[in-house]
């Protein structure tokens, strides 16, 4: 009844994985409590694409009009009050329990900080810290005066345990402690690195670890600090770095513990190195290392991703035999795995096991996992039983719960039930997200429509599989040409999303009429106004997906005339309707209007706008909108110089824009200084060989003219060596019904193939394309030289159109 797993189910699975990934292997070390793997209720969304340089900028954002300082090559900014505080610290001792004016008062303060740290209430802890320091409740006023190191460390622990972690604030506190005092100790660094690990900021964690070693040259970092660093590497997918750090400790004969092995095991799982994960798991008892619940959860995650259900059950039994009690994450992993396998009854049995364990802390996560399993199997009665169990346990439904219920009702085409569930969601004060609107409109149909091109390619045998070893230019040339010259086919994905939503639009219109009548009679019209706004958003989404793009604009104008407040979802549907109709000017104007209203666009807004500009040949505008999106923290896909991650990109056109932008950045780094004589030996070899190749192939004086121009130009471009391997991560359609298909992947292959790039699809990972450093550098430099030759030969658009689809060498 219910086809492909929805993004709601994948989000639930991601939430379960996140519980394991977020486990702090040093927090309550040796045997973490069950609470370490528990989850907060709510929607599991998160953006983790903040780069380290941008975080350092954010560290100093709150301190406008301030004085600058430089400490250990780290730029920070202090307020005037901090300058006064720093001068006073020279003559005043930091308050400690021994020299406090009131020891009891100090002890009470420490207890308060410990309570906030245990709760993970970072905002309250930061506020209390700065109130303790100078009586200000503003945690952004960084004025460090007389306060103990204990207060700071407990505040940092609260930042670490907060969900999501307050890693930026933790880093800020550390920088100010190093500048103004009290001086940080090893525990301080441990808390900060652990917070950065939980935030998946492995580069900043690595930098902080290096600062620790520099500040404490006579002290070896503790095993806990190394554990946090390995955890940071693991959550950043840096398996080789994690393994190297672990091996270095082993060579030094450092006594290992459960925490560091758990961190290494999690790193292997996070990097999809499942064989290595099994090796680490099996080695633990041989090395005398005790396995705890976090250990078992990590290996269960590995087995679950491999769909090894029988092995998961076996591990679960062995876990109980070893007297390791499962926690909520353990059972959630088992429930999700059986749900993915279509065995919802076994999934519910594990849920019943959790409910019988009265000592087990239960949140909405475990019930959402079981509910998703039932919905996926089309067992609506069993799903209602899960909801009854949820109410009996006193667990409050979250947005994910309602999204899953909406998905079930829309799959049955029970549109009355869809509207009722949606109104109940709003009555409980929950705010719908983009997934909610997809669930309202039948997310299974949306996924099926998205996969339609993949099924067509699969029928012709064009979808790359694990045996694909390279990008075959001829295989993708026709697709690339079609995408460039046939604008309608470019936007066929938008048209293919048209689906029959039955009476849903009419029911939403009727609901709006009823709300209008209630608003005139209600004593609290403000609440009804908010509900009206969200119902309008659902109507706009339904009209868009049912192919009534023109009607979307009409309803939007009605909202404006009735002065109904708009949200980002309102404009997302409007811009998406323009995207389908290929009206890039109107889409751009809608973006401007929403910003004038003070509504911040999200990634979906920019994705739709960039996509329509790219597909209509407005490549410069598409790039400009991309840069604007990145300034606001969206579509930051460049993980590092040599890695471009397109996982979060929705549309193929936007992926193409990001890829072009990235290639230009790569070229600016790889291209030698235009004065060949000023370049290094390696650079001169590349330039000279590329120039010789162009000269031999063309046999004209244009290249000599180009070389003269190169030597006379004064453009100080600095070459930064590229990584050994350059990678573009496209994904392979993990949640697609067609194995190996992804619209983003197909477009990337088409463009790179058309550009005659050296990238290939590796056998070990069909969700990416890779190329070696030397090949990429030679290709980028050669491409630039050929572009210059075309420009000097009379093609004035050659430079501007380089890396654009129609700029492909023909």
Q: Would you kindly provide a written description of the structure presented here, covering whatever features stand out?
A:
By secondary structure, the chain is mostly helical. The protein has a domain of 129 residues. It contains 38 helices and 6 strands. The strands form 2 sheets. It has a 4-stranded mixed beta sheet with strand order 3-4-5-6. The chain has a two-stranded antiparallel ribbon with strand order 1-2.
Q: What layout of secondary structure does this protein have?
A:
Blueprint: H1 7-21, H2 52-60, E1 67-71, E2 74-78, H3 80-89, H4 103-119, H5 122-134, H6 149-161, H7 167-180, H8 186-198, H9 202-215, H10 223-235, H11 239-251, H12 258-270, H13 274-286, H14 293-305, H15 309-321, H16 328-340, H17 344-356, H18 364-377, H19 380-392, H20 399-411, H21 415-427, H22 434-440, H23 443-460, H24 473-485, H25 487-490, H26 492-496, H27 504-521, H28 525-545, H29 549-561, H30 568-580, H31 584-596, H32 603-615, H33 619-631, E3 638-640, E4 643-645, H34 652-670, H35 681-698, H36 702-712, E5 725-729, H37 743-754, E6 768-772, H38 773-792
Parallel strand pairs: 4-5
Antiparallel strand pairs: 1-2, 3-4, 5-6
Helix pairs in contact: 1-16, 1-18, 1-20, 2-7, 4-6, 5-6, 6-7, 6-8, 7-8, 8-9, 8-10, 9-10, 10-11, 10-12, 11-12, 12-13, 12-14, 13-14, 14-15, 14-16, 15-16, 16-17, 16-18, 17-18, 18-19, 18-20, 20-21, 20-22, 21-27, 24-37, 27-28, 28-29, 28-30, 29-30, 30-31, 30-32, 31-32, 32-33, 32-34, 33-34, ...
Biased composition (Low complexity): 33-46
InterPro entries: PPR_rpt, TPR-like_helical_dom_sf
Region (Disordered): 25-55
